[in-house]
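Annex B. Sample input.
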Amino acid sequence: MSSVAKMIETIEDQMEAQSPEANPEHLRMVEALLFAASEPLDVKALSTSLPEGADVPGLLQTLEEIYETRGVNLCCVAGKYQFRTASDLAFLLRKEQPEQKRLSKAAIETLAIIAYHQPVTRAEIEDIRGVAMSKGTIDILMEIGWIKIRGRKRTPGRPVTYGTTEPFLVQFGLESVAHLPGLDELKAAGFLEAIPPSGFDVPNPSDELAADEDPYDPNEPEMATGSVNLDEA
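Annex B, continued. Sample output.
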């Protein structure tokens, strides 16, 4: 028996041993679809290619268990599934590439504020940062595809609100914005002081429209707010 055939037999044995109730043929189909996909797939997309009645969530859970100790893991990002190299083996796939242009400090701070405070308006971003923000900062983040206009706030001037996108979740390996690092994780990583200022807290972002937020309508005319945009130093 060839080494490839042995490996396939081993994986199939693992599938049967770890999940006796899972349909082996359905497992192979889900596995093949995920390996061939260039983008993460959600349960609905997988269901359309599987026989009617296939337990897609159960099959995905089984595959996660099978691959959790292998060289590739099945990961859930933005509510979708994708095979990714095991994090502890990432060093094997590194290669030299021209250095990419780094985001400015203003762009990084703005992205963090939008991620944690979404839905958030431009004025609220400026209030949190304590400085006026150039329009270019928002434009750069939207060009990258990590933020989007998500709605309008029910306040005078009807300012647009910003939030993160699915590519943002995929880039940072998050299942949803609810999986952003919390206070304890940020302190453990050294991003916050061991004893933060009194009253300091980490906001809870949401993908859902806020109580004072309407869906974004690109055809709604812009309203003057009387504010002046200033370039950052």
